[in-house]
Design brief:
The chain is an alpha+beta fold. Helices cover 28% and strands 28% of the residues. Strands 7, 8, 9, 10, 11, 12, 13, 14 and 15 form a nine-stranded mixed β-sheet that branches. It has a four-stranded antiparallel β-sheet with strand order 4-3-5-6. Strands 1-2 form a two-stranded antiparallel ribbon. A hairpin with a 2-residue loop joins β3 (33-41) and β4 (44-45). The structure holds pyridoxal-5'-phosphate. Pyridoxal-5'-phosphate is lined by residues 37, 181, 184-186, 205, 207-210, 243-245.
Length: 290
């Protein structure tokens, strides 16, 4: 059959045999896959087991068969750092999809998952850690299985873009006024010396740093209460912060342009940032600024 490609800049209309990119890939066509982002400090993984465990939990949840066992994946991930002589702060991005097969909603039979991972440098954002960030609030329009780290991130992408266009770092998501989390991080409110955050249900991603924050709070004797707070609660919050592997623990200083704690990072947030640095073995750096 003749092939008549129409090429307009990056737009290509052609016969599928003429595609130079494997478009019939289920991650690309259906978002049929999962991913992880693992933090690296000085060439070492942080919260490694937690991320690998969650990768397998996400795969199970979408009935995706991974072509390796957990221990094999851990070896592959360690090899990735060695082969790249990774010594810096960075991340590994890892993704698994249900493979390459002719487009059809039903699962392909006898097709292996496509898995890839890459490492890259990512310095800590010291200015955000020190000075805090601002957020907007947005309705949470995501699906009901947010505990799966799925590739379907369109609501998250749209929310984060709107945050950026409002000179904010994040979008704080809520369902009828109950705060779930942010578009790519978990969210917390501090009131009367207690930390409040949405329970680890299917409405939020069970963050690896969130697990660590709970551990730090327990060690510091700060009550960690898994109870959703509301948009109305924010008006009388003592502190707010967010957490994620790329952001660490960041003070939230403004919500929809209204200051929290007079726009000053709170005491408990600072304690958790210190605990994070100790846990990640980066507290030997002279200050949070280095
Ligand atoms: C929606 C969402 N919530 C929370 C997090 C934080 O998860 P973690 O602490 O495992 O990085 C992320 C991370 O990317 C996320 O995408």
């Amino acid at each position: 059959m003749g092939v008549y490609p129409i090429v307009l800049s990056q737009t290509k209309f052609t016969h599928q045999d003429n595609l130079d990119y494997p478009f019939e890939e289920r991650g690309l066509q259906f978002g049929d896959g999962i991913y992880e982002v693992i933090r690296i400090y000085d060439g070492n993984y942080y919260l490694f087991t937690e991320h690998v465990d969650r990768f397998f939990r996400s795969a199970d949840a979408i009935r995706l068969e991974l072509p390796f066992e957990k221990e094999q994946l851990k070896t592959l991930l360690h090899d990735l750092l060695k082969q790249n002589n990774m010594k810096n702060d960075g991340i590994v991005y890892m993704q698994a999809t249900r493979g390459s097969a002719p487009r059809d909603h039903v699962f392909p039979v006898g097709v292996e998952a496509n898995v890839y991972a890459y490492v890259k440098d990512l310095p800590r954002n010291l200015s955000n850690l020190e000075n805090g960030i601002s957020v907007i609030t947005k309705e949470d329009i995501r699906w009901k299985k947010c505990y799966i780290k799925s590739l379907n991130l369109l609501p998250n992408v749209l929310a984060k873009q709107e945050a950026k266009e409002n000179n904010c770092y994040e979008a704080l998501l809520h369902e009828d006024g109950l705060v779930t989390e942010c578009s790519s991080s978990n969210a917390y409110l501090v009131k009367d010396g207690k930390i409040y955050t949405h329970p680890a249900t299917s409405r939020i991603l069970h963050g690896c740093v969130r697990m660590a924050v709970e551990r730090f709070a327990n060690e510091l004797g700060i009550p960690f209460i898994e109870e959703a707070f509301t948009l109305a609660d924010i008006q009388s919050a003592d502190e707010m912060f967010l957490s994620s592997s790329t952001s660490e623990v960041l003070p939230i200083l403004n919500v929809d342009r209204k200051p929290v704690n007079n726009g000053i990072p709170g005491e408990i947030t600072r304690k958790l940032q210190d605990a994070y640095q100790k846990d990640a073995n980066i507290s030997n750096r002279k200050t949070a600024q280095q």
